[in-house]
Amino acid sequence: AVGLWPCRALLARRGGALRALCGSVRGLAAEPETHFGFQTVTEAERREKIYKVFESVAEKYDVMNDSMTLGIHRVWKDILVHKMNPSPGTLLLDVAGGTGDIAFRFINYVRSVRERQLQRKLKHHQNLSWQEISESYQEDKSKSLGDSQVVVCDINKEMLKVGKQKAQHLGYSEGLSWVLGNAEELPFDDDKFDVYTIAFGIRNVTRIDLALQEAYRVLKPGGRFLCLEFSHVSNPLLSRLYDLYSFQVIPVLGEVIAGDWKSYQYLVESIRRFPPQEELKAMIEDAGFFKVDYQNLNLGIVAIHSGFKL
Amino acid sequence: VRCRLSPPQRPLQASAVLRRVSDEQKKEPLASSSQQQLDSHPADPQPEQGPQGPRPSYTGQGGQESEDYESEEQLQHRILTAALEFVPEHGWSAEAIAEGAKTLGLSAAAAGMFHSDGSELILHFVSQCNTKLSELLEQEQKRVQLGEAEKKPTDQFLRDAVEVRLRMLIPYIEKWPQALSILLLPHNIPSGLNLLTSMIDDIWHYAGDQSTDFNWYTRRAVLTGIYNTTELVMMQDSSPDFEDTWRFLENRVADAMNMGNTANQVQSTGEAVVQGLMGAAVTVS
């Protein structure tokens, strides 16, 4: 039953090996080689291929997420924002945030925290003059988010387009901005953001170490790095079931729902190629973060890594 | 499954926030007495408050590194100490910790380093109070040894020690019930209990207790009971300067002192009754 993928992998590796041979025979200083799923490509090729993948899936991205994960991805993202526990006034940078899932959740969370804060304030101030009461009402209206802001940054125009449409459709306008940018080279100044999140995006970054360094750079001292990503399952039984599901069901869903088998084949392969929890933790520490730890969700299918710029 | 930080292979890079320990030493005078104290007793689960100079390598592998920069634990202590002043307004919560972090020039997101229910803040505060109490008791002992002060009778000593310790709660008294309830959460009970027992042990040590029999346990159990009940009374006391609480404390300590006498009296009365009965039995038969 799991026979399909080893064959494909072997073919791909042989193809990659041939290419590598040709490169060395030609004697050119070949570009650094990396992986695209189970294939071996140059870094430039990889970036281009990934761009094309997301360009083609952008429209159906959310629908596919729901069908592949049976809606559980919503819970994962909720857990991420709860772990963040943002207070009003927080500046969030959501990288590879494409369709805005994390950004919208952040706004909802901050809004409800702010409401609770205001209610508590009201309870304490029972003896106010009319002047003070009217002032406080004016203040409340303009600060329903309490100065919190989220910047959604993505390298892919199509994903940003879908995100903006969603925001309009759902009625999110305040405290939200959309920026086109590359995670390996962020268009922001140093020491700007309170929290940096990257949900299901770091897997698609070609040079993860550069992205981590950029994350460190743009965070304020005391700022937090949060990464939500597919990771490695150590439980053998679950691992077999997961592999089965990934390689047999997901590409089929991709073909049926989005008309795109290859992109979802890439998705599943890229998950297998991504470093496991401990390795990613070491990479985050190398970038300079402190108090790095991770939390496995669903026994390791997904993991949240967290680090602080101290 | 959550994974905790293990000592990393960290290149020596300038950290954004962790200060050089040498800077701190210039700012804060070392409390030398507290260092000695904590070694002789069952240690508090929290390390002593404030930087005490180069600490043994805790996070860094290279000996050089940990000597030059403060560790994350020390930074966490600084944040928690700064957070204490926001407790009357925000309660014992992650918000107070976030405000504390902001005063140190850190982003509010640094509060994410701690548990979201504020329990670390409370444990830090309790540990700080216990350390202060130990210092005061030691200073007093020194004065007695030097002959500058008279040695207090046991009941007076206990009363004063408990009063001094409870007075440290006064600035936070409004939010203290919240703190007590958080300390009763299952994951906090071990640490909370640890701090409580080591404090009680401290007090008895300075009171001059050198028992090696079962008395050791009874004395500590009794004092723990006195302390806890007095604390609860203090929560709902509205008399000026908590007079009612101190009177309650006085009565409880007096009861405890009498308990020893009462036990002896009961025993001797019992013996007398038994002898009388035996005598009656002998006379009759």
TrEMBL record, chain A:
Transmembrane segments: none annotated. Gene3D superfamilies: Vaccinia Virus protein VP39. SUPFAM superfamilies: S-adenosyl-L-methionine-dependent methyltransferases. Keywords: Methyltransferase, S-adenosyl-L-methionine, Transferase, Ubiquinone biosynthesis. The keyword Methyltransferase applies. GO terms for biological process: methylation. PROSITE patterns: SAM_MT_UBIE (PS51608), UBIE_2 (PS01184). The keyword Methyltransferase applies. GO terms for molecular function: 2-methoxy-6-polyprenyl-1,4-benzoquinol methyltransferase activity. Methyltransferase required for the conversion of 2-decaprenyl-6-methoxy-1,4-benzoquinol (DDMQH2) to 2-decaprenyl-3-methyl-6-methoxy-1,4-benzoquinol (DMQH2). PANTHER family: 2-METHOXY-6-POLYPRENYL-1,4-BENZOQUINOL METHYLASE, MITOCHONDRIAL, METHYLTRANSFERASE. Component of a multi-subunit COQ enzyme complex, composed of at least COQ3, COQ4, COQ5, COQ6, COQ7 and COQ9. Interacts with PYURF; the interaction is direct, stabilizes COQ5 protein and associates PYURF with COQ enzyme complex. This is COQ5 protein. It comes from Psophia crepitans.
UniProtKB/TrEMBL annotation, chain B:
Residues 20-29 have a biased composition (Basic and acidic residues). Residues 72-102 form the Ubiquinone biosynthesis protein COQ9 HTH domain. The lineage of its organism: Eukaryota, Metazoa, Chordata, Craniata, Vertebrata. GO terms for cellular component: mitochondrial inner membrane. It comes from Psophia crepitans (common trumpeter). Residues 46-56 have a biased composition (Low complexity). The gene is Coq9. Residues 1-74 are annotated as: Disordered. Its main location: mitochondrion. It is found in: Mitochondrion. It comes from the Eukaryota. This is Ubiquinone biosynthesis protein.
